[in-house]
User: Fold Integrator complex subunit 7 from Digitaria exilis.
Amino acid sequence: MERIPAASAMDWSIDLDRGLRSRHHATRVGALDAAAPRLRQLCACAASPAPAPVASAYGVLPGEARVFAETMLLRLATEFRTAADGAMRARVVRTLLAAAGGRGVLVGARVAEPEQLLRRVKVVYDTGSARDKALALRVFGCLAEVAEDSVHVRSLILSSLGASSALEVKAAIFAACCICHLSEDFSRIILETFRRLICSGTSEPQVIMAAIKAFSNLDCTLAVIHRVHEVGKQMVLGSLEDVFKSEMLYSLSRLVSKSMILFQHQVDLLFLFLNHDSAPMKSMALKCMCFMFHRNTYHFPVIRTVFGRLLPLIDDEDLSLEYRSDVLRILQKIFCSKASGIHHFNGSELSKLLLAVESSLDYASLEMQGIALEILVEVFCILKQARLDLNMTILKGSSFAYAEYQGVTNSTPPASEDNDMDRLLYKIITMVASYIMSLVNQVISREKKKVTSGTICMSSKLDKKYIAPFRLMLKLVTCYPTAVTVALGKLRGLVKELSQINGSDCSEVAVTFVEPFQTSAALEELRASNGNVELLATSAKACLIESDIGKGNLDSSEFDHKTEKSITHDLTLCTLKFANSCYTVLCKTPGARCNFHDSIKGLIECVNQNGSQYWSTYEAFQLIMSACIARDTCKIRHANKKAGDSKEEPNFFLTPSVWIAQELCALRITKMLIKKQKYWEAYRSSMYCCRNGLWFTASIVFRKLADAFSSDSFSCWLKSLLLFSAGEIEMKLLLFPSALIKLVGELKTDNDLSEDLYCAESDTDSILSGCQELLGQRAKITGICERTCLANDALEPNGSSDYDFFFQRWFLSLRSSFLEILTEILGILSTNSSSYEVREDHLSRELIQGQILTLVSCSSRLSYLAKSYDLLAASHMDMDRHSSSCLARLAFMCSLLSFCTAYSVDFSRAYSDVEPGKLPKRFSHASVLQDLLGRVDGPDRQIVSQLQQFMPASFDAEVCLQSSGRMNSSGDLEKDSYSLCHFAMTLLLCARGNAKADGMTNGLQPLSSILQKFMELPFVVPKYFFRVRPCLGAELYMFVSSPADTNGVTVEPGFQLSLTLCLQWKHVLERTTVRPVKLYCILATTPCLHEARTRSKQFEHHKTAEMIELNSKLLQYIRRDLTKGRDEKDSQSDLEMVTSFASFEPADSGQRFSACLLDVSSFPEGSYQIKWHACCVNEKGSYFSLLPLNDGAVFSVRKS
Assistant:
């Protein structure tokens, strides 16, 4: 547990005093610098002290933090008074300002005798120079919470506001604003003082400017803000000079951003100055308006007013280009924001905007062109959702209007509407591509003038300009999937132009980094964890790389993300990433990929012809694989449409022929990458293969890398990946053994790299025509399960106290558990298959019941696996979308197989003879059904209808309370999973309808068919699997609520255990954007005596089982808490487990306290272990689990 600040208060105070007594100047300065964060922590701790039991555990007395914070403040004041020079006094002021933070006021500063502290500062003010007075005033400002009620300090501030020294006056303004944050009456006094100071003819310009800037800080209450705005408005409309009016407008705009009520008034005030004769005033009014909308402060009644007033100014030739650029930027902020939309604008307004944007595209300013393109894309995205007559109104009069729409007044759509839209999209995308080249040429021409040799590094701000146009095209493709052909066609031309630049002397221009573009429509770009990158780079430098395909030293720059690349290199890679993102977008659009293969093929050929070095990149590998998938799935889709729905076979997109074609394609490229010693690109490609079920290629790459990187720091990871992938490809080859010949043949073939890497395989269908049944393969599957366990064990020696491999080991553990269940189910299916002709009457009744109990147990364990995947996803809140979707699908598949296993025997007469006491605990068919029903995507009504046929009349829809993610149906693998679900429901319903009263085999035959098709689907891993880093979680520390108890965590028999809790969460605030609004914790214990054992910091399977059970109980408690429907006590008990709940308010420090009562009054004397689990809920109501990073406390029940 991290020490609370109060535990270090005495040491910090001593360090400060010892440091300030030193004769060495550097030591005194170091002591002051170290005091700032410590003082801030102590003041915060004094305001909200730790509970008494926690303080007692550290030997901290009540109020100790406050006392030593006061001591440190007094010591700083003494140093400020006795300092020999002004430099040391300035250091003290800097320390207080650093401790105070942004607003300048040290929050929580309290002193028992304020006058004693303030008197030491006042001595410097009374006897010092003007600079000393200014420093003293700033100290008063930092100590505003101490000086707030001091009449002497207020008097000093007011008198200093009239001083002759500008330095003293500005310091007094700062001190006044600090106290005004806390006092409403003083704010009104200071406001009048500021007005006189600004309007005085004797005030210096810098003083007037400081007073005007201070207006935005007079925000104590809403009434004060209203009064400040009223006074400021009067002064702006008065006789102030323009330079002061401009500053006052900006200060008032900052003030108004804190109050929505004044938004309309400030906008009206700014509009008055748009007609001002002074150009600087017009410019400042526009900048103020841009600031107000940039802060996402939207007052909806104002939006249309601003929109209508600013729109004509774009074409105002009297305004300079800079002003019109500001106007366009404001319109872009309003129009392209999430807060506004088509509901706030009519067709006429949008038509005017489109005309204005069109004129802006002709300006020479690239900044205006970029803004105009963003608005243009937004308009056309709105047109996608708008009515046809509104589209005609918007486009009327612009060059983007449909040719057939000119003069058309009715609402009848022309026959060539799609062709016209394609022409418009072509025009827009051409503009975007031209804009990218203009940016490149501008930078090259500008930078070439600065240097004559060497490389030129561009800032990240310039890099973002290159990313923005690609985002615009991707947004357009999201709304208009047909635009992908146009976009990729234009990008082919862009690649050719970039290659020409690269061949000239302009190639010297370089950028250091181009970040991947992202939109809400596209999945995140592949980015491995920094830990992996650094680890791989370290290993690369430490050893000699040798492999069968390529031999030689690895270029360490391959792993250096800061290596300078030419500008054309980065833009070409950005083009490839854009194409890959287009594929991701189109994966979610039904029927949009049939022409995608040809478009990608053209881009790949263009890249290969104009820049063959890009052929050896991961981006090119991913693009080629996308083309391969697009071609194959398009063929399968056409074949499925011709075949129609089949009750005998599910319509899969990812058929065995698709799998083998992708394996061969991936194998060819990765061979080339390894041959060229592109090991990092090969590693990234193998990660892609694991995410798409291409285990043969992945295992080959991991084998080569494991041989090459044999250092201790990285070998365990590659060894685990090798064992895992080898097991998965062996499982695949159990189903399709004939594929091995084709794969090994391709591995041994030395292909020409110039050949078509994504060519179709003509003989794969014949090779994979027959699928080997899994029945009788139990021994081999057991061996695969053992290999998966070895992959898990390979990571064990390298796990740290932060659980670096926790996710990976948990995921592998779930996979091995599934394989164990699979072998048990196959054993029963094999037994019944061999006695298929034997009637159930002739079989042993005990044997049948034993098989039923085994199947029911397997169903229960599969349901547990589904919940485990749910918890695995919920426990990693920094997980990407692909990984979340992958885990949701795995949970769905486990739930589906659990349902099929349970309902394959429930209609058998033998099942009704099974004693309920022999069934697994908490098992019921209703819970299994409810679990699967909760995971089905809402729009899929067919599955829901089929599942409802299994529901009994007395089915309780609320029987199962759990947190399960619905599996979407956007990807091919998800669609295949739903297809399998349809297939399974059909078979089971048919079996139930045809089953005799005593028939059990009728249910096992469909289960065997379902399981066979289940295993034919590819097994994939989430992207998050390759992010090796300390996991997110929490530590919980427990203290007896009685500080006087020094015997540890003990309680007398017959009494409840009162605990004070300290929850400390790890890595949550640093690595995620999740901001919890509430944290919850469950404590549980059982009457079983605790067995002493060594605490483990490694992954343990039994811990995850405890987490799932506690997580389920915690979810039920949270639902009651959030719905305010709690009618039960926070502490609950049953025959097996005693539980208690606690809640925490989040804090930036990551440490909070609470208390709970654990009812252990019925426990006999002895020692017991407390188990716990925690979670958090964010502002959107999303639930996230916090992994327990330490064990719960052990308490004793004994007589005193």
